[in-house]
């Protein structure tokens, strides 16, 4: 088996992660539907994977950082069931899913991978694009002890922390819980700021008090500051910059609520946040 490291999905988080992989001193193969990010990384020393089949042939570790559950499914099984997906890799290959996906899908993929002798682990991340650039991400990993040990040197190139949450599926479960806290915090500062302004107070006052008691986190402060700055440029600018994040928030919260329903856990507040999260990102309320 080749000792290459592969990476699929070169967006604002995936591209810096893939760039950091070059620190390993192993061949790094990258793939994306957009040619621009691939070309950038090839200039830095990566190899171009024209198809997932190239990754299967060249890599013993393959990371996936694409948008959602259907995108991961297509990569694993191939387009329209073509049988040319990453689950056709040789036995012993490790495939790490960094995307936020449903817990049910992750467990199903892991069962199929195990039957093929492939180590499929879930390793979603938190820290955003800035954390990816600075190599300060936190990886939440669901894997056996053996698979986690294999992952650690690869994940260390772009992280400040790796949490071994448990067996396969535990990383996804932890990420879904983290997402609930993140979007609830954004909603809280959105509503608090609207009430403050309506009462003649300023956002600066609110943040000053929130900082003093730990209620306002740097992430919340960055969100409300950046959103309001772009909102001042007009609704079109705001929609262009923040609509994708609102849609992502709804998708992430839907995944969390689906998991909660299967486990018999009532998350009434999270359901409400899901209903309004796109409006929160677009300052529409």
TrEMBL record:
List of catalytic residues: 175
Signal peptide, first to last residue: none
Keyword check for Oxidoreductase: yes
Domain 6-phosphogluconate dehydrogenase NADP-binding: 5-164
Keywords of this entry: NAD, Oxidoreductase
InterPro entries linked: 6-PGluconate_DH-like_C_sf (IPR008927), 6PGD_dom2 (IPR013328), 6PGDH_NADP-bd (IPR006115), HIBADH-like_NADP-bd (IPR029154), HIBADH-related (IPR015815), NAD(P)-bd_dom_sf (IPR036291)
GO molecular function, one term: oxidoreductase activity, acting on the CH-OH group of donors, NAD or NADP as acceptor
Domain 3-hydroxyisobutyrate dehydrogenase-like NAD-binding: 169-278
Pfam (any one): NAD_binding_2
Domain of life: Bacteria
Protein name per its UniProtKB record: NAD(P)-dependent oxidoreductase
């Amino acid at each position: 088996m080749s000792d290459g490291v592969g990476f699929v999905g070169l967006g604002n988080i995936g591209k810096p992660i893939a760039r950091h992989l070059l620190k390993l001193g192993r061949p790094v193969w990258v793939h994306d539907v957009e040619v621009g990010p691939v070309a950038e990384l090839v200039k830095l020393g990566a190899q171009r994977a024209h198809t997932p089949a190239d990754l299967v042939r060249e890599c013993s570790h393959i990371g996936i950082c694409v948008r959602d559950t259907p995108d991961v499914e297509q990569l694993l099984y191939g387009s329209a069931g073509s049988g040319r997906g990453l689950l056709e890799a040789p036995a012993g290959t490790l495939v790490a899913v960094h995307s936020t996906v449903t817990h049910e899908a992750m467990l199903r993929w892991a069962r199929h991978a195990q039957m093929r002798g492939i180590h499929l682990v879930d390793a979603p991340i938190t820290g955003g694009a800035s954390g990816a650039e600075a190599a300060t991400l936190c990886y939440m990993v669901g894997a056996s002890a053996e698979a986690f040990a294999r992952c650690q040197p690869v994940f260390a190139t772009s992280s400040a922390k790796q949490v071994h949450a448990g067996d396969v599926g535990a990383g996804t479960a932890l990420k879904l819980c983290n997402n609930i806290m993140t979007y609830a915090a954004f909603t809280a500062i959105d509503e608090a700021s609207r009430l403050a302004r309506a009462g003649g107070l300023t956002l600066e006052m609110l943040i000053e008090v929130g900082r003093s008691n730990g209620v306002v986190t740097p992430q919340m402060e960055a969100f409300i500051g950046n959103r309001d700055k772009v909102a001042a440029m007009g609704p079109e600018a705001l929609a262009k910059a923040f609509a994708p994040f609102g849609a992502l928030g709804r998708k992430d919260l839907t995944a969390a609520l689906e998991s909660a329903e299967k486990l018999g856990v009532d998350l009434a507040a999270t359901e409400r946040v899901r209903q309004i999260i796109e409006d929160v990102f677009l300052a529409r309320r």
